[in-house]
Amino acid sequence: MRRIRIAAILFLAVVGATCLMANLVAPDSYAHQFRDIPDATPSLHHLLGTDDLGRDRFSRLLYGTRVSLLLAPAAALLSSLLAALLGGAAGFVGGWLERCVMAVTDLFLAMPWLFLLITVRALLPLNVSPLVSVAITFALLGCLGWAAAARVVCADARALCGSNFVLLARASGASGFHLLWRHLIPNLTPILYAQFWISIPVFILTEANLGILGLGVAEPLPSWGGLLRELESFSSLSAQPWKFAPLILLIVTVSCFHIAVRKQEAWA
Amino acid sequence: MLIVLVLGGFLGATLVRLAPGYGIDEEELDTRLSEQSVQALRQSHATEENLPRFYFGYLSKLLHGDLGVSQSLHRPVRQLLAERFPETLKSVGLGLALAWLAGLSLAIASVMSRLWIIDLATGLLASILLCVPAAVLALLFVIAQAPGRLVIGLIVFPKIFYYARNLLAASASLPHVVTARAKGLGGWRVLLWHILPVAGPQLLALAGVSISLAFAAAIPVEVLCDIPGIGQLAWQAALGRDLGLLVILTMLVTLVTLVANSGAELVAQPLRSGDA
Questions:
Q1: What ipTM does the predicted assembly reach?
Q2: With an 8 Å Cβ cutoff, are B135 and A201 in contact?
Q3: Selecting from 3.30.1050.10, 3.40.50.300, 1.10.3720.10, 3.90.930.60, what CATH number does the domain A2-20+58-267 have?
Q4: Which residue of B has its CA nearest to A227?
Q5: CA distance B83 to B80
Q6: In terms of Cα–Cα distance, which of A264, A153, A154 is closest to A202?
Q7: N or C terminus: fewer CB in 10 A for chain B?
């Protein structure tokens, strides 16, 4: 199992490094249109052929991977920070604050994730520039995905507040800030770290779903969700199996995340 | 549950109020109208300027069953829900039945058989399904011309399988279960008398959560498989920026989830106290 885990981490590192260097590795820009060869089959110059607008699929896959693979961790970081702030404060202060935060958490957990996401997405403009659409999509994921993590953090913070070492520190006259900074935050870090890693594959899959539904990252900027929209032209799929490349890369990457974070799941 | 519902109502009303174009009547753009007519139209919305009155009015309308008219589809929301909700219930019901049947059976097989090959095969199947976006599964079903409603089952299945397997494995390793096995009790008897009663309350809690998962999966499935349910309606409302309809749909699904969770909790409570 350890070897599989190392292989998964290595794969993620290679994919991450390649997409970070997309500017150097990609043969063309993601938006450049070769208008004389739309829907071309794979060749030496276009490893995965071109799409119906003549854009190089391999380049778009690299740039799309960069968008999804860099911004999903950013959204996970945002949601983990929100969970730490709300869950930690609720568990530390207790009383009415804890009750309020837990009521809001219950509400967020009861609302089906995609319903909530598309409701808030509909509130924001749909005809925005590609970069703004990327920011909106992943900021929404981060802002709406904190509830489950906050519940775990709150329970842990509450347990820590009742633990012997915190009681001893309190009895020794430690201030609230000291308790928070020296005792609670260091002990909550592993939980937050676990929540961060667990959120990444969830956010990658959610962005893919939003992209296929046309509510994700706007064209011409590619993301995995946007690239998977090509699967909708299913009449040509059997003749052009290379169109499955983004799907295969997505499945393998998400699988690698699941394998890599298995230890973290035990923490959470 | 009541607090959560009231919070949900306020959140919904806030979203409607924040929506761009809120409080502006399309008729105001009619160039044939005089200045007085436009003023009269604005006056008719003046009551909504008062925040407390707006929230109270919104919630009281909801409580009286007045769900308003869809801005994008120009039809009463109640009528749309009456047409589409049964379709979604059918999809979600079928999906949940499939997910629970497959998830629980494979979890039981994995824990009770204690054969690595079964554990590996079931784990691999669930892992693959966990890594495929719901929308892609729906597209693959469309290509294969298979019934789209089954996709909801395949999306919920891995979560049920993993939770159920972990719960059953934890119950199976309890000292009294190990003793029962050592004394030669049959596999089915151990499962029905010792493992399931311990894992029962948590499995019921999982049943409540799985309903929320199934409703969320209904959006991509209904859109891509062209099933006229509330998932498809929510997507149409999102594209048409019909926030009023979206909020009603979200609150309706939240209500169903909360009722299901509370029901599961009510059933689980006697089981828990029985354990104690």
A1: 0.82
A2: no
A3: 1.10.3720.10
A4: B136
A5: 5
A6: A264
A7: C
